[in-house]
């Protein structure tokens, strides 16, 4: 599969609100806020939050080591949207991203954007534990914590809220400098900043655990994961990154335990997709301590049927990663025979085929997949296999449809650029590369590429008009983003 990686980024979320009342036994109350005299609306509208979220996510794509693996992107977004569908006060679309980073952390920012570090898959023993982190971050967004923090600083600090935005952006690019700037902007002192954040974290816990329960996950997973975090801090010289951006005093853990204990007990089994995703993250994106160990595979081999499948899949991934394609195929075959339509297995089988230069086998396998028309993962796999198999025209046809539907997927534009280059369609290659540049925040380069595409086609043609219109759109976007680029 097509899995590009990018550079590095670390970010932090700062927000505020008071801790709500303790829930009654077996409560399922709405995660709404008491009226405390501010809705953050006088500082930021929802439209402004979406606009800033668009700007920041482009910077994220351009500077962070995002894992653009379609299978993993599909999994975390599916899990995230299951949680969002059970949250109240949802005012924005949500998007979930995975960063290749062995520091344990997660954060959220404007416009419903939630970012997970890959280390979460190393530490989360169950899907409910992973979901508890995501529910917490979703609650930061639904409660508009960042906008509330900016409203508070606008009332109480001499700097404008625009200064806070600049500091947040600095935090995304340089964690130490950014954290210091953000501390100074929003609270004035480090201790004030910590207290401010604790209030925010407590509310995100309170709302998040309700979302977790309503989504069918184990509410005990939230205090369980907090326990794991505290254990890490007790036996390490440096606390986990997550505790630096998400303070976790004992009182916060005690409150989470209390809330979970008041909810109906439930037995929740992790899905097979969770185990597959964990095996894939640790097996293919083994950064630093994030490794698929033999101990984990051995434990899974003795577990339930989902864990056993993940162990077999993980060993096949390891074999393929070592270019042992015959061994990988042998390990995968029993899984594929039992479940030939499983996208995790089809994807790996395709990679093995391509590694063995069996391009026709890969193409035929993907074309036979029942979910090809509806599953973007399989569509990208097929486009990649067609390119490897010397069929760029068919790949381009598929990718033109794909990029029309999934405009924000850099994978599709990158593959389309390759297909058009193989076909000798220079203007369309440049246009596809321009869309990729725009998605990673390089608007000047995108405009330059589109200008080149416009110069390649007949003067006054419909195609030239399309390229010129897109240039105008990107120039307008530059104007929209100008306040943020000056920070």
From TrEMBL:
Residues 1-27 form the signal peptide. GO terms for molecular function: metalloendopeptidase activity; zinc ion binding. Zn(2+) binds at residues 136, 140, 201. The keyword Protease applies. The active site is at 137, 205 (proton donor). Binds 1 zinc ion per subunit. Its cofactor is Zn(2+). Functions as both a chaperone and a metalloprotease. Maintains the integrity of the outer membrane by promoting either the assembly or the elimination of outer membrane proteins, depending on their folding state. This is Beta-barrel assembly-enhancing protease. It comes from Enterobacter lignolyticus (strain SCF1).
